[in-house]
Amino acid sequence: MFKILLPVDFSENTDNTCQYALALAAAMPAAHILLLHCFHDNLADADYPLPPAEDLTASEAVAERVIHRNEIESQDLMEELYRNLKRDARTAGTNIKVERTFMYGAAEDKIPDEISRFKPDLVIMGTKGESGITRSFFGTVTTKIVEAAQVPLLTVPRTYTGGIPAKVLYATDFDSSDAAALEALQRLLQEFNSEIYCVHISENEKQQEVDKLQELQQQLTTSTSGSNLHYTLLEGGNVADAIEDLVQREQFGLVALTTRERTLLGSILNPSLAKKMVLNALVPILIFHSNEKA
């Protein structure tokens, strides 16, 4: 059974993210979606415990009522979203199990805990896909999960409405985990007949990079059904800008990459780049994680 962890914050992007998750789940022989909401109210972050109700000051009583009201509203929104997603799963006639969990605490703390417990095959989160002060709080939480999660993470921008894409860009830095990531990507998208383009970006095309790309192609030809895989080198000084330009020019609907811990200057696909792309991308970003160090 393919397991998807779906953290939600009830923002305007929640429905869009849920529908994307449902589309992926519907293509699986069997799938399990777990909705997760982490309730965390800053008013409850006092440095001291509140006294008994009869001893509360007027301001403390107001704060207590606001916290309780926000909690109830969040629980109601969760139940409504849960019912709607279950209804949509039944309408699609798919073998999808939908559950929900309501947790107390900061999302950046509770999501990794739930990843450890639930052991999902994929985490899907929404972002605003905008920069500057318009970034949502949940967007910053998503960037923290980029490093914390050791399972594939898919982010869906608020402005993206294209569904599962026909063209996917996989940015490679010739990591040893590329083959496994591309195989996982093929399995995830096999029912959608998506074309996957493996692209390596560098300032100057070097023979060594040509050889590495050919080696990757040969490796995948023997280990996967490579009919939907394409390979190319692209010149560009700034990797994020080069990817963004290519996505817009060639109408890619998904960017996938494998990040590795950056200990030297050799790795271009590191968590910092992934976080930048997550915050600014206008298409979904799928992030795999490698234990290899640059």
SSE sequence, one letter per element = EHEHEHEHEEHEHEHEHE
Mean pLDDT: 82
The radius of gyration over CA amounts to: 21 Å
- The largest sheet has its strands arranged as 3-2-1-4-5-10-9-6-7-8
CATH architecture of the largest domain: 3-Layer(aba) Sandwich
The fold-level CATH name of the largest domain is Rossmann fold
Number of beta-strand segments: 10
Indicate the low-confidence ranges by residue numbers: 130-138, 263-267
User: What general form does the structure show?
Assistant: globular
- What's the end-to-end separation, in Å? 34 Å
What class do helices, strands and sheet pairing give? alpha/beta
The overall number of domains is 2
List keywords for this structure.
globular; alpha/beta; 2 domains; 294 residues; Rossmann fold
Short description:
The protein is an alpha/beta fold.
Protein described:
The protein is of the alpha/beta class and 294 residues long. It has two domains: 2-47 and 60-157, HUPs (Rossmann fold, 3-Layer(aba) Sandwich); 167-293, Rossmann fold (3-Layer(aba) Sandwich). It is 41% helix and 24% strand. A ten-stranded mixed sheet has the order 3-2-1-4-5-10-9-6-7-8, with helices on both faces. The two termini are 34 Å apart.
